[in-house]
């Protein structure tokens, strides 16, 4: 598949690398005992360490270490048993220490690889350069006062994993698939909730263009993009902009840009003077981080089944199609729900219900599967009613809709509304005879070879029985009688 | 290794330390002297000596993932020259 972009003077290749900042799921911060919960009162989850008070010393949170290792294993990456924390020095109002504690030359996790699937079913392997632990900064609020910015340090010091990819992506679609996959893996692992709206995951996007086969072009870095859609817009805009610049005889500046969501464009950030001279050095308050192979092995032993392995199992053992399996493993909550319903039931039928009607209802109500008003148990109950022929598949769709609104069990709805399927062949036969007697012209049409009219007869009988007649029996009886 | 006047001015700016023009030259000489003194260490052969992170033979201390701090927003902003509604307030820094 070609990802080349046509310019005025020929084809261009876009090269994309991503730095994903993923907030570590933990109760307390990377180096202090203050809480990490979202949405608390300003400065209420701040220790003197996070506020950068003189003399405060950082003490590392073991959970952050475990989560970083767990994430590294999930990204098929090399775990470094020895890593070092460094100070990245710069002055900004959201950084009370005057430096961010990060990892520079010796990160906790080294190279890895993530396999992503594209729309057309092709796969791409995206290299991971590294994953390191670092502190988040505080939050600046600009809209409360005409001349002041307000600073909330609740986020200051929360543990982040910065996941740096290699420049292996060649299209916005690939970049989107990569972020979705990393997000899914972290959510399966429980190391990051992946909530982009709340800022638990955001990305810096590096974009450059080049003639196919040539060396890498100069890149622009688009900072702090907080949704996959925005990221893809930014990549499209930046690609066109850079091609225009070069084809117009100019050169692309290596610079930091920011994405403007309302216009879908990027613009240069006011360059902080010498901002890129961070003067990294090892943090003298922290000894090197060391752990044993045994520590890593213990974490490895607790890893859940990850999306790739799950997908293979759904296809090989449950007989699902590649598409169905991919949809069901795309998020941990979906997979857990699916597995809860399919336990002891027909895997393919359950797959159809989950990603067909249930997803349809959820989409209409704009709900995530975790908030589904119909539980896995309840959906299972509905499917059981179809399997034992209590209701038809068609009626079941209506029942699901009622379940979705009322939260009732399927069996209760079927009993209350009298939706039980008619499987008494005598009763169905009576209806069939009535319809045939009342429509001799249609009968003649059928007998003259117009097979399709059978559907009309089925419809009449379904209407007469309010959809409760067993469709298979209706078909059979009609055929027998019409052939006369 | 020695540092010149321009380098002193640059690192002073990066560290947000105000240094007067006439102080730059003497500071450059002092810093160069310190660097040269440290450079004596280059005479020692350290090829087979592992890097030392601490003079104590101890490992990094780990903390359990427990919330036992925070909950004192008044203390946090107590020393702020300008605080509003529980926030620190600083001159506008919007990009």
Number of strands of chain B: 3
Helical proportion of chain A, percent range: 25-40%
Regarding CATH, which class of the domain at 5-42 in chain B?
Mainly Alpha
Helix tally of chain B equals 3
Total of DSSP H or I helical runs spanning 4+ residues of chain A? 15
Distance between the termini of chain A: 57 Å
CA radius of gyration of chain B: 23 Å
Biggest interface, residues from each chain: A-B, 53 and 38 residues
Roughly how much helix do the residues of chain B carry, as a percent range? 25-40%
* CATH architecture classification name of the domain at 5-42 in chain B: Orthogonal Bundle
Question: How would you sum up this structure, described in words?
Answer:
- The complex is a heterodimer of chains A (484) and B (95).
- Chain A is α+β, with helices and mostly antiparallel strands.
- Chain A folds into three domains: 294 residues, no CATH class; 113 residues, no CATH class; 59 residues, Arc Repressor Mutant, subunit A.
- Chain A contains 15 helices and 17 strands.
- In chain A, strands 1, 2, 7, 8, 11, 12, 13, 14 and 15 form a nine-stranded mixed β-sheet that branches.
- The longest helix of chain A has 20 residues.
- The mean pLDDT of chain A is 91.
- Chain B has 95 residues and is α+β, with helices and mostly antiparallel strands.
- Chain B has a two-stranded antiparallel sheet with strand order 2-3.
- In chain B, helix 1 packs across helix 2.
- At the A-B interface, strand 3, helix 1, strand 10 and strand 17 of A face helix 1, strand 1, helix 3 and strand 3 of B.
């Amino acid at each position: 598949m070609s990802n080349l972009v046509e310019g005025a003077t020929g084809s261009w290749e876009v090269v994309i690398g991503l730095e994903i900042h993923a907030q570590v799921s933990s109760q307390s911060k990377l180096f202090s005992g203050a809480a990490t919960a979202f949405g608390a009162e300003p400065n209420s989850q701040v220790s003197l360490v996070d506020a950068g008070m003189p003399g405060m010393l950082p003490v590392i949170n073991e959970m952050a270490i475990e989560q970083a290792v767990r994430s590294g294993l999930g990204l098929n990456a090399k775990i470094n048993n020895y890593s070092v924390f460094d100070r990245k020095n710069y002055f900004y109002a959201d950084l009370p220490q005057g430096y961010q504690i990060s990892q520079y030359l010796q990160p906790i996790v080294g190279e890895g690889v993530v396999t992503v699937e594209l729309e057309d079913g092709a796969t791409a392997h995206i290299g991971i350069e590294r994953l390191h632990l670092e502190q988040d900064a505080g939050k600046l609020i600009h809209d409360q006062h005409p001349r002041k910015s307000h600073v909330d340090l609740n986020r200051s010091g929360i543990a982040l994993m910065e996941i740096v990819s290699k420049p292996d992506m060649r299209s916005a679609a690939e970049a989107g698939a990569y972020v979705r996959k990393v997000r899914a893996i972290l959510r399966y692992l429980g190391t990051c909730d992946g909530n982009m709206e709340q800022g638990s995951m955001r990305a810096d996007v590096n974009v450059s263009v080049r003639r196919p086969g040539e060396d890498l072009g100069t890149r622009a870095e688009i900072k702090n993009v907080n949704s996959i859609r925005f990221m893809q817009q930014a990549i499209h805009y930046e690609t066109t902009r850079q091609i225009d610049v070069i084809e117009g005889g100019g050169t692309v500046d290596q610079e930091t840009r920011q994405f403007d969501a309302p216009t879908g464009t990027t613009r240069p950030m006011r360059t902080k003077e010498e901002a890129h001279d961070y003067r990294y050095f090892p943090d003298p308050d922290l000894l090197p981080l060391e752990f044993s192979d045994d520590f890593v092995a213990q974490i490895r032993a607790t890893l859940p089944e990850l999306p790739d392995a799950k997908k293979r199992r759904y296809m090989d053992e449950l007989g699902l199609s590649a598409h169905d399996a991919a949809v069901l493993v795309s998020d941990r909550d979906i997979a857990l729900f699916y597995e809860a319903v399919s336990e002891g039931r027909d895997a393919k039928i359950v797959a159809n219900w989950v990603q067909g009607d249930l997803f349809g209802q959820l989409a209409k109500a704009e709900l995530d599967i975790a908030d589904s008003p119909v539980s896995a148990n309840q959906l299972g109950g509905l499917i059981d009613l179809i399997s034992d022929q209590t209701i038809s598949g068609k009626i079941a769709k209506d029942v699901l809709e009622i379940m979705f609104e009322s939260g009732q069990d399927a069996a209760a709805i079927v009993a209350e509304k009298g939706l039980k399927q008619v499987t008494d062949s005598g009763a169905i036969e009576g209806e069939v005879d009535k319809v045939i007697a009342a429509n001799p012209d249609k009968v003649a049409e059928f007998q003259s070879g117009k097979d399709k009219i059978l559907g009309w007869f089925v419809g009449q009988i379904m209407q007469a029985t309010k959809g409760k007649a067993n469709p298979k029996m209706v078909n059979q009886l009609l055929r027998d009688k019409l052939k006369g | 290794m020695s540092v010149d006047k321009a380098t002193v001015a640059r690192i002073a700016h990066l560290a947000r330390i105000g240094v007067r023009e006439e102080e730059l030259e003497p500071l450059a000489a002092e810093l160069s002297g310190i660097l040269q003194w440290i450079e004596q260490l280059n005479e020692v052969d350290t090829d087979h000596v592992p890097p030392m992170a601490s003079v104590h033979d101890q490992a990094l201390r780990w903390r359990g993932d427990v919330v036992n701090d925070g909950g004192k927003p008044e203390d946090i902003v107590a020393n702020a020259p300008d605080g509003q509604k529980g926030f620190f307030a600083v001159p506008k820094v919007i990009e």
